[in-house]
Amino acid sequence: MNTAVGFLPEINTKKSKQRSSTYYSRMKQTKESLRARLGPARPAESLTRKEIALFRSSPKQSICVRLLQEGFHRSFSELVSLLRSDQDWRATAEPGSLRLRAPPLVEQRHKMETISQHLSLAEEAERTGIWSTVCEERLLLGRFFSDREDLWLRFYFYHSCTDREKGRFSRAATEARACLTELYLDRGELEEARQQGELCRKQAEDGGWLDSDGRPLKLRACRDLWKIYRELAEAPLAAEDHKKALTLLHEGNSRAAESEDKHMKGEAAFQVGLAYQRAGDHSTAKKRGILRGGGRVSGEVSRHVS
Fold first, then answer.
1. What is the pTM assigned to this prediction?
2. Hey, how many other C-beta atoms are within 10 angstroms of the C-beta on 293?
């Protein structure tokens, strides 16, 4: 045993303890250095209760809550009313209706966001009495809903410009009337189209306004009014009520003359002459450029066009 011990290296207990102490000291310094560079451990950034609620809420809820929190109570009520109106209509709509092809408004977040944005801007302008801005925001909404299935929203927002007590004579409200004139004309509701068109023409004449695309609103209204009066005259012409038909066509001819559209002016003059011929007044018809067979007199049409 003693011999074996002689083959083992001599262990210096004191030196071993010193080396161990130095090793652990260096390890401690290394850890502290790493902590200093990395910084103290921080918990992951957490969402607020409000943000969590927005994720959990439906689009309708989050939009409505935001409107209420920001103080836009009228906009909230109007949006909810539109959503309810859409829901009620769908409950009784006939299968295959065009509007049913689109999802309910409550499921279309982008459209609800757009409505809430412009309604809140309109409400803010209303508080300060800037009625032209109120109508501008509502006109923008009417123009935004250009899809066929959104026709009901177009009508709603255009009428919200034209039917209000304050702001209805503004440029935006006048353009809304021009848009309504075209919409009613497309639907064949000629009397309503005529009323909107005449009001638009009068307001545009007083204000000298252009529409959003830079076109004179008066000329735009006059062009539509000629089409309206021409279509209104078709029924009395078919019933041989020549007096009523001529009255309507003369009104249309006047609007065509104001439209500054040479082709339209010539067409209007021709239609008036044709109506005189059908009434048996061939002399007046000839003065209007109509031959007995219903054709145009050479040179006469160019006189009306120029």
1. 0.77
2. 6
- At 48, is the secondary structure helix, strand, or coil? coil
Choose among 149, 154, 151: nearest CA to 101: 149
Parse the chain into domains and list their residue ranges.
233-306
Tokens 């067409």, residue?
Answer: 267
In sequence order, the β-bridge partners of residue 290 are 296
Phi and psi at residue 210, to the nearest 5°: -110, 155
The C-alpha angle 241, 246, 249, rounded to 5 degrees, equals 125
pLDDT above 50 (res 111): yes
Please answer whether residues 190 and 157 qualify as being in contact, where contact means their C-beta atoms are separated by less than 8 angstroms: no
Alpha-carbon torsion (231, 237, 241, 244), positive or negative:
positive
CA neighbours closer than 13 Å in the CB half-sphere of residue 184: 23
Q: What is the pLDDT of residues 296-306, one digit of tens each?
A: 544 444 344 33
